[in-house]
Amino acid sequence: MRSLEIVDVTKNYGEFRAIKGVSFEVDPGEFIVMVGPSGCGKSTLLRSIAGLEEISGGRILINGRDVTREQPSERGVAMVFQNYALYPHMSVRENMGFALKIAGATRAEVKAAVERAARILRIEDHLDKKPKQLSGGQKQRVAIGRAITRSPEVFLFDEPLSNLDAALRSQMRVELGRLHAELSATMVYVTHDQTEAMTMASRIVVFNAGRIEQVGAPLELYNRPANRFVAGFIGSPRMNFIRARVLALDGEYATLTIAGMEESLRLTAPGVSVGDEVTLGIRPEGLGEAAATGSRIRGTVAVIESLGRETLVYVDAGVLRSFDSESQDGYLAVHRSRQIDVKQGDPVTLTLDPETLFVFAPDGTTVRFPER
Ligand code: ATP
Known about the structure:
- The protein has two domains: about 5-230, Rossmann fold; about 235-370, CATH 2.40.50.140.
- The protein contains eight helices and 21 strands.
- The chain is α+β, with helices and mostly antiparallel strands.
- A six-stranded mixed beta sheet has the order 6-7-8-3-9-10, sandwiched between helices. A six-stranded antiparallel beta sheet has the order 13-12-11-14-20-21. A five-stranded antiparallel beta sheet has the order 15-19-16-17-18, with no helix packed on it.
- Adenosine-5'-triphosphate binds near residues 13, 36, 39, 41 and 192.
- Adenosine-5'-triphosphate binds next to strand 2 and helix 1.
């Protein structure tokens, strides 16, 4: 039996359809991360699972039980919010035990559940403090602890790490992974941060504009994105996108021309037609240094980010620009997993190796993946 089934769910706000018929299933013990840009509907769906929003169509099942019309407290879910939502006048112990107490648990049961959760989250020393005496990370642990004490059938997380600084966020990612393994619980987690999705998820659900673009394991989405949206969303820095035109076809092979490059490229691209404007995709680590094979791209170093064990270089390649990339400003992003000795303005030669290229058809569908 599935832990959670989302069946053709729609949600309208007046005339506006925030969720446009979404279906997926979650197996027991999975850590599902719903990811997508701001406004894509992921929080609305999570809140709908929790029962905080009434859906306009479809059904939601938890462990086979249709909960679509049930009250939030009847659904067997516990939700952790971005802003912690702790009761300021209660101690940590009281915050964590409150829901159980209201549900009629005995004092001994509440005490045992709170102490177990505190042990799992390593906050035993803070049980008698008030929320204002805690750091952001500690508050978020208390919020998670409050969910754990309820032993829910499904845990729901709504951007729980967004208010934490970068170091704490990466520590909490590891902790949440450990928590998931320790509890063997089903978790559904919403974030706009693809790093959180990649590092924690058993499977990622990629949302865009109220629809699902793709569902898959993190590396499946990274290596085999179904379309240009997923390819651009998963991976940091983003995939470089280059416009190309289909000049000729020869069986499964297409000859492509790229503005700003003298040589044409020949590669497999099933399903495209002569004259099509296609998109080439290349990951920052796929842009090779000058080599014997592949087409050369000459450019200059525009920006360098030396991160210690790795280096990101943004290359200005003249008219050959990466498009659809707010963060890269038209530069080609290049990744090297080492320190390199370059400075702004240095000339560089990169290689566009057909083996490392994705090709997206005019409608965005991936028609070719790199050869591995
Ligand atoms: P974010 O990461 O910014 O929270 P999201 O993907 O979680 O984005 P939702 O909060 O689910 O997005 O919102 C989806 C869409 O529904 C948005 O366009 C939003 O403006 C709209 N929306 C959400 N709540 C309401 C509401 N109560 N009334 C009207 N429109 C709403």
